[in-house]
TrEMBL record:
This is Linoleoyl-CoA desaturase. One of its GO terms (cellular component) is membrane. It comes from Marinoscillum furvescens DSM 4134. The chain crosses the membrane at residues 45-65, 71-89, 159-180, 215-234, 241-261. Residues 67-341 form the Fatty acid desaturase domain. Keywords: Membrane, Transmembrane, Transmembrane helix.
Length: 371
């Protein structure tokens, strides 16, 4: 497959995004509000950071002791990890938290406290996923060759019929994979694809930064508790693994139902590297919202249940997505463009696992062939 940059069809209703952008800009102008974080967002930032670091301090200072109590602290840290990932560093690494790039860089670096590497995250998420959503060979979020099948364009293997069963376990290992192996693999891969330079990195610098960040992370969050917490070593390791499993599972179950579901489309560029749609329309065809009426849920998951609005306007803080969704949906309807959404989080998750089942048993392909 040609790995050159994907070319979108600029002649496919370009007036849609022009009009949508105009209406969104008018929303902020007419209401005299900033596109960046407001007081609500700043309070959330304090809460999520405290939810992650406070249990850790209570544990290593011996303020909280006992097997079950300490395990409970690890669980809270897992929830805090996902909260930071969804609600803070995500906006910051998109440059959407603040108009001050130093604030964005500072808060974006928090992903390193989750075991990942901020520069790789920007390449995979901002550059590849947002630019080429659900495009095989380009969007790394759906590239799990030999492990899972997310797109009907990907090769089917007999054991994929079990992927609907083993998927939750693999999702729970996601942040551990970041920590142990993924970032190193990505640096090598991004060097070959000439993507490191876009982040101002050389291969050597990227490898040194990844190694340094992994080292201090392991010392701080694993070695230190092993030394100072008066519990058997295996209980500390179990708690550390539980924290990562909770975070990984939660992150996956928020992002997967936004793109990898029955309703969304998947694409493979033609021989010239082109796809059929305008970029903005492509985002609507490959993305879905869910649980739009649940304010508490939306607050915790960083507004990423409004994934359509996030993909169209990633440079706007998620705290505004609820209001923007009304504008986006109305405009999409005017231009006869699909606006995928599930009423609840659980219906979106159900659609995701239904999609995995169809791809795993090859019934998805059979329906396409029959059509």
């Amino acid at each position: 497959m040609n790995k050159a940059a994907v070319k979108f069809n600029t002649q496919d209703q370009p007036e849609f995004f022009r009009e949508l952008r105009s209406r969104v800009n008018a929303h902020f102008r007419d209401n005299n509000i900033s596109k960046y974080a407001n007081l609500n967002m700043k309070l959330k930032t304090v809460f999520m950071i405290a939810l992650y670091f406070t249990p850790f301090v209570l544990m290593v200072t011996g303020t909280v002791t006992g097997t079950w109590s300490v395990l409970g602290l690890w669980v809270l840290m897992g929830i805090g990890m996902s909260g930071i990932g969804l609600s803070i560093m995500h906006d910051a690494n998109h440059g959407a938290y603040s108009k001050n790039k130093h604030v964005n860089n500072f808060l974006g670096y928090l992903v390193n406290f989750l075991g990942a590497y901020h520069q790789n995250w920007k390449i995979q998420h901002n550059v590849l996923h947002h630019s080429y959503t659900n495009v095989d060979g380009h969007d790394e979020d759906i590239a799990k060759e030999g492990i899972m099948r997310f797109s009907p364009n990907q090769e089917h293997r007999s054991y994929f019929k079990f992927q609907v069963i083993y998927a939750p376990f693999l999702y729970g290992l996601m942040t551990l994979y970041w920590l142990v192996s993924k970032d190193f693999e990505q640096v090598v891969r991004y060097k070959k694809k000439d993507l490191l330079a876009g982040q101002g990195l050389t291969f050597r610098k990227a490898m040194l930064e990844v190694s340094f960040n992994k080292a201090w992370y392991v010392v701080l969050f694993l070695v230190l508790p092993l030394i100072v917490v008066s519990l058997p070593w295996w209980q500390i390791v179990l708690g550390f693994l539980a924290m990562h499993f909770i975070c990984g599972l939660f992150l996956a179950l928020i992002f997967q139902p936004a793109h990898v579901i029955n309703e969304t489309n998947f694409y493979e560029p033609d021989e010239f590297g082109s796809v059929e749609n305008n970029w903005a329309i492509h985002q609507l065809l490959t993305t879905a919202n869910f649980a739009g009426n649940s304010r508490i849920f939306s607050w915790f998951v960083g507004g990423l249940n409004y994934q359509i609005e996030h993909h169209l306007f990633p440079n706007i803080c998620h705290i505004h997505y609820r209001q923007l969704s009304k504008i986006v949906k109305a405009t999409a309807e005017e231009y006869n463009i699909p606006y995928h959404q599930h009423r609840t989080f659980f219906s979106a998750v159900r659609s995701h696992f239904s999609h995995l089942y169809k791809l795993g048993t090859n019934t998805y392909d059979m329906k396409l062939t029959a059509a």
